Amino acid sequence: MLVASDLTVRYREAPSRALEGVDLAVSAGEVLCLVGPNGSGKTTLARALLGLVGAERGQVVLDGRPVKAWRAAERAKRIGILPQREELPFSWRVDEVVGFGRYAWMPPLASLGRRDREIIERSMERADVLTLAQRRVDTLSGGEWQRVRIARALAQEPAVLVLDEPTAALDLGHEMEIFELIRTLVRDGLATVVVTHQLNLAARFADRMILLERGRVAAAGPPMEVMEAALLERVFGWPVIISTLADGTPQFSPERGTAGRPRTLPPEAAR
Amino acid sequence: MKHLALVVAALVAMAIGIAAGAAALPSADVWRGLVDPASPAGPIVWQLRLPRVLLAFLVGGALGLSGTALQAMIRNPLAEPYLLGISGGAGLGAVLAISLGLGGVGVIPAAALVGALVVSAAVYWVATIRGSRLEPRILVLVGVVFAALCGALISALLALSEAAQLRNAFLWLLGGFGNADWPAVSSFALYGALPAVLVVAMASRLDVLSLGDETAHGLGVDIVATRRLVYGATALLTAASVAVSGMIGFVGLIVPHAMRGFVGPIHRRLLPAVFVAAGGLLVLADVVARTVMRPAELPIGTITALLGVPMFAVLLRRSLR
After folding, report:
1. Domain total of chain B
2. Any CB–CB contact under 8 A between B304 and chain A?
3. Is residue B20 part of a domain?
4. Chain A residues closer than 8 Å to B214 by CB
5. pLDDT the model gives residue A221
6. Beta bridge partners of A136
7. Which of A76, A87, A91 is the closest to B218 by Cβ?
8. Residue B320 reports pLDDT greater than 70
9. ∠B153-B154-B157 over CA atoms, to 5°?
10. The CATH number of the domain where B34 resides is what?
11. What is the pLDDT of residues B67-124, one digit of tens each?
12. ipTM of model
């Protein structure tokens, strides 16, 4: 349903490509996590999936049609989004912000109809923000705000969700809440792409992971295949130990270095 | 309910506007003049006060709509139409016409309109990157630079003008409704109606646009097209306002802000509230302008600045906190 093939992106005046030959596919009922170091192209890939950046080569196809060929509103009915950063200039109520998710569905000049209101309410319920409906968004905590934004993405009634670092700056409990929520949504049939720095949570919640390294796919597959010590060491430039949870999920821990330098930095990563 | 209160307040403001003026008329005479144009006060009411009040109301409403839309597009409640060099362009066009001695009926407003549109197009062209991206901060920066350029050219024209033209140009630049008449009301309504309707029709798009580019794109707004429409509509509204009444600042800044607090930030409710409130406010500001130093008139831009600057300072301080 959302497929990228041989996706290659170069920003103007950038010395190297932001993405090079990336293949990706996500289908209903699946969580796909994009991981990788800072600057490895995760956000660029998420943006490219939405048609926000142009491809030098390759393309992104949504339901059989290039994502850029969709009209904005038609695309928004299929892909729900959670951008990484969002600053609000005005002080809206939570239900108003969630209501913005209905924009693509509303005929020009119309206001929210009964069906829209039902969907807004159901979206708030699913993201567990119904009790916040009348609150002003600038009074919310970080975790509440992220859930409100997820509710807004759900109000788009999408088939695919693209979430760019949905748990950035959240504490452990709130972070787990968001990942559990994502898992629940996927059980209901959504396809979900999650950009995250949380390798361990990605390993626990993702069906498949894509590890990016300087714009290229370093590894892709189930967490077992991606959470591999030598691979992570090379990509992140830091030695790691992989352990396994009782259910077989691989988890990593970074090793302590000496005098601020990793002990066993492989030559590849040291460059 | 809140909107109804605003409409009532605006009607009261208009009634005050019709009752007040350089010639002190008893209110009974004013009322008789309104009902019966043939009565002694009829000509004053129908030929002077009514068009003046209506024009002030419409210009206020237009500046309010324009400011609201611009604030949503630039995502900054401190933006206002005058930031984009639109008024500078209008001023330059008008002063150029005055200093060339082109004083015919409708020539100065037309020159102001052309100046405003030329400068706002130039600002847009310089501020857009590769014809598509429009970075709000860059737009404001370019607008300020062009406003400074227009100011410099206006100074040069004024320095070279003769005394009589100088005074005319100054009075025009300071803004006011002293020359309001029915043709001005109808030509303003003609120029302003289309962009005003366009802005109101884009209410829900403005909501989503003010969430920022990426979010708006993801929620289904065609950002580039919407920005062009918003910019074009605000430029037209401001240009038409400046053309008929000179430079009146701060209305497009303070009223949207106050109304967001009153009816909330959703544009479907906000835009009508701003239109009515800004119209009413400008009618009252005009009453102050023409009565406080009676029979002399103060420039209305002075009144709005006296109101607007303290509010702007408060706003800015609060946003910095």
Report:
1. 1
2. no
3. no
4. 47, 50, 52, 81, 83, 85-86
5. 95
6. A93
7. A76
8. no
9. 90
10. 1.10.3470.10
11. 999 999 988 887 887 777 888 898 899 888 888 877 666 787 788 888 988 998 898 8
12. 0.89
